[in-house]
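Tudor domain-containing protein
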Amino acid sequence: EEGTAESLLNNVNDNLRKVEEAVNVELSCFAPQAVRCSLKDLVPYNLTEGWSEEAKAEFCSVVGSAAVEMRPLGQDRDSLLVDLRKAPMEQSTDVPFSVREYLVFIEVARFYSPVTLGRRPLMYYPPVYPEASKELNAVVCHINNLSDFYIQLVDNMESLLLSAKLQDCYNALTEDKLRVYCPVIGQACVARFEDELWYRAQVIGHPGGRKVEVRYVDFGNKQILSVSDLRKIKDEFFALPAMVRPHQNT
C-alpha cells in the first residue's frame, strides 16, 4: 500500500506545477473554457436508482468526440440547460436527431417536462390518383378490411425498378451507414421487412422497447421493427410518390 501511495504521489508531482505570479495574472484574462451543462428536462428512467451506467454509455457512444449542435434552453444554478443534436449530413433528407429524444426512445431516460424542438421530417410525395370513371388494371396488395385496402396499378412498372435499386443500394451499405438513432413520427425512411429486403417506409408509432412501427408506403402494410432495421432514406428515393392508393369506403 505504501508503494502504491508513493507511486500515486509521484504521478501527481510529475503533472502539477505551480504558476508564477506573472503568468497567473496573464492567465486570469481568460475565461474557463469548459461550461458545465445538463440536458434540459431529462431525468433517469428509474428515478429511485438514478442515472444508470447504461445511460452514460449510450450518451457517450452517441456524442463521442465529434462536434454536435448545441441549443441553450436556459440556466439552472451553475449549469447551462441544453439540447444536443447530431449535425446533419450532406443530404437534404437527413433529419438531425435530438440526443435527449434518443435517450428517451431507448428507455434510459424520461422527459420531466417535454419540449418539442425537432424539425418537421420530410414526407413522401402523395400518391397520384387516377381520373374518375377511368378503367385501369390494378393489384390489391394489402387488405385491412373491406373499407380499407391498398392497390398498385399494374401499368406502373416504376415499382419494380425502385425495388431493385433499393436492394442494390442498401445491401451495399455497412451496418452503421445511414443508421437511424431516434425515429421521428412521420419520418420517411427505408425499413427491412421479414423477407430481409428493403422497402420505403414511414414511421407511424413508438411502441416502446426500442421498437418502431412503420407503414410500407408502396404496399400499405404495417410492421413493428427494431430500430436497427431502419435506415435514413437517400434523396434519389424521394423522386417517386408512394406507390399504393388507399381505398376507403364510407
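thats it. The two ends are 82 Å apart (CA to CA). The longest strand covers residues 198-208. bye
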